[in-house]
Specification:
This protein is an alpha/beta fold. The protein has a single domain, classed as Aldolase class I (TIM Barrel), CATH 3.20.20.70. It is 24% helix and 23% strand. The strands form two sheets. A nine-stranded mixed beta sheet has the order 11-10-9-8-7-6-5-12-13, covered by helices on one side. A four-stranded mixed beta sheet has the order 1-2-3-4, with no helix packed on it. The longest helix is centred in the middle third of the chain and has 13 residues. The model has no long low-confidence stretch (mean pLDDT 89).
């Protein structure tokens, strides 16, 4: 990315977006190292294209159903919020399961001065899609939850190797890539070390560890001492402990702040 920051005036305030690190900040607002949205009001939109997913993660922020947001309704929301936000994110469930996913991406590609992010488990990425994303400056955040055995146990089936192939594909197309990892009961320091190595090997811009919250599918952390990340890892990861100040539209069209 040649120019890694966007700037937009929204409601008379200077709003900035770091394309590489996926962080929003507002002029005269202090920046917190572990906060993705350093703003006084929500300046990004997260659209849940579906709450369906092929993974069975033990913790999931989405309500597991089989609802899909239509192309027309998604475009309606995008048009309404286009002037109000500096970043738009497509999420799920697994957003690539929405039959209209590529058409929605195509519509968003027409919008300039907007950060564009996909949150995905990475299972369905292919060359055609990666080529489309590369040409239009998308960031792809891939869910990966530790070493092979840790990840596979957490998501419910053997998918680690498939995700590594997707990271290889993203690297091939030089797409800005993040790894999102939920801290869960089986997550250990060796998993962090493994993810840090993957960050180096695949030129990952950001490794983001996420503290679980009590919504969606929730399994309480009851035996994990990694509620505080060791200081020696601090320079290599982003530990997200706060809720993002984000407008969230669910697949069932509930509009609220992000959980």
């Amino acid at each position: 990315m040649e120019d890694t920051k966007l700037h937009k005036v929204i409601d008379g305030k200077n709003i900035f977006y770091d394309l590489k690190l996926d962080i929003i900040f507002e002029e005269f607002v202090d920046i917190c190292d572990n906060d993705r949205t350093n703003v006084t009001s929500p300046r990004d939109l997260c659209i849940e294209l579906t709450n369906s997913c092929n993974f069975l993660c033990k913790n999931c922020f989405s309500q597991k159903k089989a609802t899909f947001l239509s192309l027309n309704k998604t475009i309606e929301y995008i048009k309404y919020y286009e002037s109000k936000v500096i970043r738009m994110c497509l999420t799920g469930g697994e957003p690539l399961l929405n039959p209209e996913f590529r058409n929605i991406v195509g519509y968003l590609n027409k919008i300039s001065n907007m950060g564009k992010v996909i949150n995905t488990n990475g299972f369905y990425l292919d060359d055609t899609l990666c080529n489309l994303l590369k040409k239009n400056g998308w960031t792809v955040a891939v869910s990966l939850h530790g070493k092979s055995e840790t990840h596979n146990e957490y998501v419910g089936f053997d998918s680690y190797d498939r995700i590594i192939k997707s990271l290889t594909l993203l690297r091939k197309y030089s797409i800005n890539t993040h790894i999102y990892t939920v801290i869960h009961n089986d997550f250990e320091e060796n998993d962090i070390l493994h993810l840090i190595e993957l960050k180096k090997d695949f030129n990952i811009s950001d490794l983001r560890l996420i503290k679980i919250r009590e919504n969606g599918l929730y399994q309480n952390i009851n035996n994990n001492n990694l509620t505080q990340i060791p200081e020696n890892f601090a320079a290599s990861i982003f530990y997200k402990t706060k809720k993002s100040n984000t407008i969230f539209i669910s697949a069932e069209q509930e509009i609220r702040l992000s959980n």
